[in-house]
Amino acid sequence: MTSLLWPLFQLTLAVLAAQAPPAAPPGGRVREAREATEMLMHFAALPSASGDAEGAGQAATWVQERFRELGFDTRTLQAEGNPLVLAERKVASPSLTVLFYMHYDTQPTGPAEDWPATGGEPFHPHLLSGKWGDRGTESMQPTSLDERSIGTARVYGRGIADDKAPIVMHLIALKRWLATPVAGRIHLKYLLDGEEEAGSPHIEASLGRNRQLLESDLLV
pLDDT (tens digit, 9 = 90+) per residue, 99-130? Predict the structure, then answer.
């Protein structure tokens, strides 16, 4: 995850700010992979299917806590349905305001037999050394990841690819990026939807009520 998506994230914002992206610190690739995987497995354990209000609420709280740890202000923009979360980091004189749209809810899990890689429990994520079912694939812990295994290891669980891993990718990448001069020139906003997999039935009204708050130069 981090080996491919981190460069994409940093290059996007660096190009927008007309500055070269920051270099990876020594040993940073493995350290970030371990941190990202641990974070992802915790996030993926939250049962945030769109139709599970309690589980979606837990995921919304988790997302807000992680962004606050990075210095973002967070708020909930809608009272109806699952929380629509806005995380925002303001700067004094921004050259650009970028709004990222992502979602933390998941599709329903389906029957247990659809989840052999997680022992029938879709919200009990498993880290495997390779593809499920391949010969030699073994269960492993995030602390066991190294330069070799981060290229083959996979996390299995509901909502990993859509959209929890991308959210974690941003959180990990932001930790390094926010320490660069570029960060002082870009106003960042993240809109995190809790009902995307259900068609976002309440988002239109929320966008209308918060039009000025969500204004940006670029939507990603």
Answer: 999 999 999 999 999 999 999 999 999 999 99
Q: Which residue has the tokens 């390779």?
A: 130
Q: In terms of DSSP bridges, do strands 186-193 and 218-219 run parallel, antiparallel, or are they unpaired?
A: unpaired
Give the three-state DSSP class for 75: strand
Residue 15 neighbours by CB distance under 10 Å: 11
Structure tokens at 46: 């939250």
Strands 85-89 and 186-193: antiparallel
Is the preceding omega at residue 73 within 30 degrees of 0, hence cis?
A: no
Whole-model pTM?
0.90
Helices first, then strands: H and E counts in the chain = 5, 7
pLDDT in tens, 27-71: 788 999 999 999 999 999 999 999 999 999 999 999 999 999 999
DSSP one-letter string for 81-124:
SS--EEEEE--SS-SEEEEEEEE--B-----GGG-GGGTT-TTS
**Burial label, 133 (beta-carbon count in 10 A; 0-12, 13-18, 19+):** exposed
